[in-house]
Protein: Oxidoreductase
Organism: Streptomyces lydicamycinicus
Amino acid sequence: MNALPPLEAQDRPARLTVGVVGAGRVGPALAAALQLAGHHPVAVSGVSDASVRRAAELLPDVPLVPPAEVLARADLVLLTVPDDALAGLVSGLAETGAVRPGQLLVHTSGRFGTAVLDPATRAGALPLALHPAMTFTGTSVDVQRLAGCSFGVTSPDELRMAAEALVIEMGGEPEWIAESARPLYHAALAIGANHLVTLVAQSMELLHQAGVQAPDRMLGSLLGAALDNALRSGDAALTGPVARGDAGTVAAHIAELRRHAPQSVAGYLAMARTTADRALVHGLLKPELAEDLLEVLADSGDGPGTAPGAPDPSGPDPDAPGHGPEEGDR
């Protein structure tokens, strides 16, 4: 690999021309944030109607051009495409000679560090990986939400100051992530954010089935308090039947989910088992109560019927052809 040329402030204009390749939810918002910091968006590429609309809303009067033309016009290029498309895009741009020596090439993938940019680096580009740890809507509200947002930053050592400066200009807080740690870093964020959305949506659906008219309002204060407590206290913030070792309540939950929302059982069991394990390790779940609880969770993984040996709080269903565990397992 070619040695990276140093990024010398005196040799680079104070304000950069900015281009975006991939006008999804992230790229236009970051370019708009850089514009607020005094940089100049000059080109954007996008294919879908939604991309064109986003670019028009967040980057008005910035021309829509092919990716190679974006690189021809911009000092700083944001590559904001899906993870699986990034390597191919970089290779294609490098092979066609679109990359210019000294050009800052930034991708926003959480999964990758700068190694994915190696083809462009060999062509003289300056590689940066800046991943905003935030969910995006594709609207102007995202620009405001960048204030205080943490960015996972990976770059060559000689570009670290430049990378962190760009994050700060966008209103974010740089957090250094080693190249080898990027996949683990991204997995952690997926557990904390992406899976949270699934859990919350599932919870609202179940509350609606239970007759709650405003599930979002009911969950709002509960989830806000739970999140705040968890961020402050970690596992010590845990409450609920699993932490208490209340095996009967957990068994009743499983039975009701199998009856009304069988697609939710697997997720409930997985989270309950993980919660029980962490509660045991941290001394929150008493060992003498854990045995019955773990037995319920282990027995409940066999199939969609009522957990073997678990009490059915509502009794047998008279309309069902069978109500034992063997019937449910088929």
Remarks:
- The two ends are 59 Å apart (CA to CA).
